[in-house]
């Protein structure tokens, strides 16, 4: 079961709230990047990479075998 990205600790119920445009609440995000503001470039800062448990376990096993 997936976890809600807007409310950590809560199970995802496929409400779609995380797919709503930040600038226009009546539309689904289409990755236009207008919410990022005016800049010479468009970027999003990655603060965390969340990996499925199966991948984490597999990587730990591979590292311990080295």
Task: Describe the structure in brief.
With 66 residues, the protein is mostly helical. The protein contains 1 helix and no strands.
Describe the model.
The chain is mainly α. Helix content is 20%, strand content 0%. It is built from one helix and no strands. The chain is flat.
Strand content: under 5%
Total strands: the figure is: 0
Helices and strands, in N-to-C order?
Answer: H
Overall pLDDT metric: 79
Biggest sheet, open or closed, and with what strands and sense? none
| CA-atom Rg in angstroms | 17 Å
End-to-end separation in angstroms reads: 32 Å
Shape: flat
The quaternary structure here is single chain
Low-confidence stretches: none
Instruction: Provide a count of the helices.
Output: 1
What is the helix content? 10-25%
Which structural class matches the secondary elements? mainly alpha
